[in-house]
Amino acid sequence: MFRFRWVDCQLRILEGCITPNAVRAALRELPRDLDSIYLRILDTIPERQRQYVRRAMNWLAFSAEPLTLGQLAEAIVIEYDVNKYGEDPETLFDPESLMSICPSLISFEEVRDDKYFSLESRRLRLAHSSVKEYLISERIAQGPCAYYHISEDKANLLMGHACLSRILQHSAQGIILEKKIEETSFLYHSARYWFRYIGAIEDTAPTPVSDAASKVLKLGQCWLDIYDPDQPPQRALSGTRVYSSAIYYSSLLNLVTCCKLLLYRGDAVNLNSRGGQYGNALQAAAAAGNESVVQLLLEHGAEANAEGGDYGNALQAGARAGSERVVCLLLERGADVNAQGGFYGNALQAAAQGGNESLVHLLLERRAEVNSHGGQYGNALQAAAQAGNESIFRLLLECGAE
């Protein structure tokens, strides 16, 4: 595969030759391997364009989803400075110029029918897997083009910063959305993925980055109207929507540092306030299996038996997530093992349907009622049967299930 790629790159080099003598000269100077070809391409990029190419390589190598040409053109002009957010970026004079800077490194994804896609709405990718392999390797890091060396952590920091900056810029403009944002816009990408990029590097992110993330969480409607991670399918705007708190979303998204900042700075006054798909911040964290956040919330006064939300209570949410550690934390803080309500009726039924046998053991040891009725499947035995969990089914029978 790499040999075909090598030949393709050589042919691209020869494309610029317009006379037989030029071809012969180029043949004598052709790089002998892919590393040499990529080094040659990068080394010829004009100085004034280098920062844009490096940013583009980070996005193309590590973005959560492929960007369109228009998105990438907007993303790479955002000045990377962890101390600055929300400033109006410059714009590329011509987005298509990206393709002319390093055509052998970037290509468009294939689409079924080009006529239905404008150039700026076509999605981009690195031209070959060997491009990413080279850019993240120690070979480039130790060579003359070390400037272009990339890593996943640095890319997540750069991408997270750009997304936060774009959302805060949108907030500063005070624009009220009257229709949903196009999914091909960079603003939509920013709202959809900023928390994934920041979450990946949260432990090592500079303080200004965490501050900016907390600020976005507190914006509420400004970014949730664009994309609400609590209700992903709901894109359309609605005047009747109720927005949950910043601590709710930071708990749901497992943004531990943001949770700490919100709690320590007094921005999460009522941890037990109701709202959102999961009813409260503790249940949201438990449903996602976010152990560190669950522990943090409990330490700051979250009620282990608070009711509401899809699962009725945090214990049932943790049981459905299959997280033994979350369940143990909640039980240690007084969660009622037989609390009723929610989709599954009780924690035992949720665990039985989820298929975690050791968790079912744990709940039974903590005196969960094996024949408790309610919920989607009526009782734990029927939940296990519906899920095809034979070992859990037998365990429940041994413990007196009827």
TrEMBL record:
ANK repeats lie at residues 277-309, 310-342, 376-402. The keyword Repeat applies. Pfam families: Ank_2 (PF12796). InterPro entries: Ankyrin_rpt, Ankyrin_rpt-contain_sf. Keywords: ANK repeat, Repeat. Gene3D superfamilies: Ankyrin repeat-containing domain (1.25.40.20). PANTHER family: ANKYRIN REPEAT AND PROTEIN KINASE DOMAIN-CONTAINING PROTEIN, ANKYRIN REPEAT-CONTAINING PROTEIN-RELATED. This is Uncharacterized protein.
